[in-house]
Structures are given as structure tokens and as C-alpha cells.
Write a structure and sequence with these properties.
Blueprint (H helix, E strand, L loop, with lengths): L1 E2 L8 E9 L6 E10 L20 H4 L3 E10 L14 E7 L3 E7 L12 E8 L2 E6 L2 E7 L13 E6 L6 E10 L3
Antiparallel strand pairs: 1-10, 2-7, 2-11, 3-4, 3-10, 4-5, 5-6, 7-8, 8-9
Length: 179
């Protein structure tokens, strides 16, 4: 898990290229709008928050609120070969790990190989759109009621699970979106 060191505005466009070692396995995720649950303007690096030690539940059911999108979702069962791969892109709302939207993995779901692949994440108000290689992967409009308030500004983090083996991220840019 790699967190960018500063918070980003509520309305943003994130772009980056990713090249993956294994074109058939792995799980890659973007966390965003991350803030401490007890301090919506605070830093996710502040003292007093539970240590995030790599265990996934610390990011999804801990003391930090965020959204996350899994945009690469191959064989996520680490070594299970007799089950079909997931091949879906999911949006989840944390803390709580709420599955709020499902879409298509536009990398492994399309058999496009290691890449590089262009990833774009747009968040404007309550609207979240993930696009990979120019194709919409998943969309979600948060109503601000069903799973609690809309998360606004906050930190962005990139996570890849160990069965992705390795990935190269390049050309990472974040833009403020304005009317």
C-alpha cells in the first residue's frame, strides 16, 4: 500500500499507467477520499489511528473512511486454479467494506496482457467513474444516505495484492476538477 503524502480535493481526476507482471492474476486497488472517521479534516497519518500493517481489513473496516475501486481483479484466490477468476471491478465504501457498484475489469477481463494500461479515476461530488484503456470500468453515484454521507476530499492510495507479483506505475497525475 502506497499513500500519496497529501490530501486531494473532493473533485479530482487521477490518471496513471500501470504495467503488470502477470496478465492473468492479481488485484489492484485505488483508495481515495480517505480521512480519519473521527476527524473528517484530519490526516490518515495522525497519531492515534490503528496501525495499518498490510491487513486488508485495516483499510476497509478500520478507523479511516474512504472509497476504493478494484480495477484489476484476476484470479484473486491466490493459487486456486479450478475456480473462474472474478474479472469484475468493484467500488466499495469504507469503513464497512460496502459493495456499492460492480463493473468490468477492462484489463484482465479483456485479456490485454501486461500493458501499459491507462487508468483514470474521476470523482466529482457524489459521482465516481473508473475508466481503463478508454473504456468505462465501473460507475457509482453515492446518494449520501444508504451508506452514510458522501466522502469528500482526502488521501489517495495505491494497493496491489501480492499475487499481482509486481507492477510498474508511471505518469501519475492528479488534477483538481472545477466547474
Amino acid at each position: 500500500m502506497l499513500w500519496l503524502p497529501k490530501p486531494f480535493p473532493a473533485d479530482f481526476l487521477l490518471e496513471f499507467d500501470i504495467t503488470i507482471e502477470r496478465a492473468d492474476q492479481g488485484l489492484a486497488i485505488v483508495f481515495f477520499a480517505a480521512r480519519p472517521a473521527d476527524d473528517p479534516a484530519g490526516s490518515i497519518f495522525k497519531k492515534g489511528l490503528a496501525q495499518r500493517n498490510g491487513r486488508f481489513t485495516r483499510y476497509t473496516r478500520g478507523d479511516v473512511n474512504s472509497y476504493h475501486v478494484s480495477y484489476i481483479a484476476g484470479d484473486t484466490r491466490m493459487g486456486v486454479t479450478d475456480a473462474p477468476p472474478r474479472r469484475t471491478a468493484n467500488v466499495r465504501k469504507n469503513s464497512g467494506f460496502w459493495l456499492v457498484a460492480c463493473g468490468d475489469d477492462q484489463i484482465q477481463g479483456k485479456g490485454l496482457g501486461p500493458g501499459p494500461h491507462r487508468v483514470r479515476l474521476l470523482k466529482v461530488g457524489n459521482k465516481i467513474r473508473m475508466e481503463v484503456n478508454g473504456l468505462l470500468s465501473v460507475a457509482f453515484d453515492d446518494d449520501g444516505k444508504t451508506w452514510g454521507p458522501v466522502w469528500c476530499d482526502g488521501y489517495i492510495g495505491l494497493r496491489q495484492m501480492n499475487h499481482l507479483l509486481s507492477a510498474r506505475y508511471e505518469n501519475l497525475k492528479v488534477y483538481r476538477v472545477t466547474d
